[in-house]
Amino acid sequence: MAGLILAESAIFTIFVVAYLFYLGKNITGPTPREVLETPIFYTICLLSSSLTIHLAARFLARGIGFAFLGLWLLTIALGGLFLYGTAEEWHRLIYEHGLTISTNLFGTTYYSLVGLHAFHVTAGLIMLAIVAVFGLAGRVGVK
Amino acid sequence: MSSNVITVSVGQTDAKPWVDELHHWLATVDHKRLGILYIVSALMFLLIGGIEALIIRIQLMHSHNNFVSPEVFNRMFTMHGTTMIFFVAMPILFGFANYLVPLMIGARDMAFPRLNAFSFWLSFLGGLLLYFSFLGGSGLYGAGSAPDVGWWSYAPLGARAFSPGHSSDYWTLALLVSGFGSIGTAINIIATILCLRCPGMKINRMPLLVWMNLVMAGMVLIAITPLSAAQIILLIDRYFGGHFFDTQAGGSAVLWMHFFWIFGHPEVYVLIIPCFAFMSEIIPVFSRKPIFGYPVMVAATVCIAFVSMSVWAHHMFTIGMNSYANSFFTLTTMAVGIPTGIKIFNWIGTMWGGRIQFKTPMLFSIGFLFQFLIAGLTGIMMAASPFDWQLSLSYFVVAHFHYVIVGGILFALFAAFYYWYPKMTGRMLSERLGKWHFWLFLIGFHLTFDVMHIPGLLGMPRRIYTYEPGRGWDTLNFIISIGAFIQALAILVFVANLIFSYFKGVRAGNDPWDAWTLEWSISSPPPAYNFATVPVVASRRPLWDLKHPENPDSRYE
């Protein structure tokens, strides 16, 4: 597991390096400063979901199935909310500012990096949902 | 450990119909079978890649040759490089790691057998995808078939405008897919080594082969992933209209070089460290002495792994970096020579005063030591950036890295084949054919790659499909090509030996080399369950302890 995280972080590093390397090298606009806003609420959602899943796992270890399931579903909801936030942001960028992946370097690097992240969130949500289905069917035990 | 056999009931040993047997191989999750699948598929690609090399060499035999067109020549060197690195060297080393690591640490299987099978089939699919480009590469455009952009696919050559059609896409996807396979295998190797060691196998008692594969797997995680990321980025450029490497929109072609070489250089060590591992097992056994300087060997390996992560831009001295970057990468590159030198001294220290047996595996090992040393020396020459400015992109570079890959990696692999073939099949490889193989290959190798340095020094550039007469290159290139054919002949002897010995070889028994690691304590080939009783080890040479109860190693550790 640690190995997988190491490999994933190496992949993300490359994308982040590309993003930072090209910051301020745009030939045409829009630039990040003009269009990006800090998505505070959705960031809180995503970060707090790691807390809820951690607590869920602890309740599961102690055998409190009800609390586990509640927190697990809350995690999924928070992750979903974050995805919605990303989608909303993209919608705004595309329709209000006309920024797409082929507009300029910022568009290319931004959508690649955020897209890779959203892809990981989506994959995580699918896995969480599978566990949730098993949980609702009452088949997730201490093991 | 003599009681390590479970009697199999008669019904199970009946000959199975071949369809059943095939199904067993295709659906297997057994680490030994997957290891052999890796090795066999890699040997297949080795033959294909070798034929491509011969086509290159025939074309360059004399000036103004018309054996193949320039387009075909470009495809040949691209496919040769890509095949040899990604679909020969990597899988064959993973194959040996798969086969040997669990046996050496006394485990039943790898930590994640299904992930193991998945990784193998991903890598194999990657190879098939690459070669499918010969059929499907033209796509709708009718432009090009196999990829012809070089094994590094430098930007902007890899961009859509310069590589229309799908041939480069096959290259990208093949590397992406096999890269994911490599990451899976690396995670598997790490988990196996950290979690499945048998009782008493402390981390400082592991055989050096296991240690070095652990380091290699760690490097794969950090080195292969940038390549995968870069391939995803390239696909975004090619298909979603991205501008990462599009200089007209402010993108940077140099960034691709950085991304490629931050993979590309550690990759060399990903390939060579398992070869160090083979040496560290084979040389002691045939010198009849334990390895000299075990802890230093481990430290040197880890050290190489760390330093090799910060040397990549020595492939880029000629793109015009500033002098600080040039000095930094010159120094780091030269620093790699120190731990590598330590290893060479340790292997010589192991042989020093030993009773050396010149069996075929040992011959190849000695060849490895000698040639790897020279390869390292030309490496140091080119690490000096002013020297590199003169010789970059010349045949000197080609000679240097083939010295590493053929003279180092391939010789070590042949040694490993002769050493572990008895364990894998239960029969010895023929010594007689082995000696023929060794001497033919050695002569062919030196004829080709020693001579190849000279046209490089005379200024012959890489990747040209032909050259003008009267530059003093003709005779040299002719000799190089002759050497290539001698090597090809040696490979044929090797393949003949593999096939002949599989049916007619001398029965090996459990331990034909009187070796000291755990894989030799069980039958050859090992049973599906590996160890009937979980072995317990007390020293670095468990079989020595078993054979010499009056004077075990464990007394001194």
Report on this model:
Chain A has 143 residues and is mainly alpha-helical. Chain A has a single domain, classed as Four Helix Bundle (Hemerythrin (Met), subunit A). Helix content of chain A is 78%, strand content 0%. The model of chain A has no long low-confidence stretch (mean pLDDT 85). Chain B has helices at 18-26, 31-59, 70-104, 113-136, 167-195, 208-239, 253-287, 294-308, 323-351, 360-383, 385-391, 395-425, 431-457, 474-504, 542-547. The model of chain B is unreliable at 1-5 and 7-13 (pLDDT under 50). Helix content of chain B is 65%, strand content 0%. By secondary structure, chain B is an all-alpha fold. Chain B is globular and about 70 Å long. At the A-B interface, helix 1 and helix 5 of A face helix 5 and helix 6 of B.
Q: What's the shape of chain A?
A: elongated
CATH topology of chain A: Four Helix Bundle (Hemerythrin (Met), subunit A)
Summarize the main sheet of chain A: none
Order of helices and strands of chain A: HHHHH
Number of strands of chain B: 0
CATH homologous superfamily assignment of chain B = Cytochrome c oxidase-like, subunit I domain
Beta strand % of chain A = under 5%
Oligomeric state as shown:
heterodimer
**Any idea of the CATH topology of chain B?**
Cytochrome C Oxidase, Chain A
Succession of helices and strands of chain B: HHHHHHHHHHHHHHH
CATH class of chain B: Mainly Alpha
User: Biggest sheet of chain B, in brief?
Assistant: none
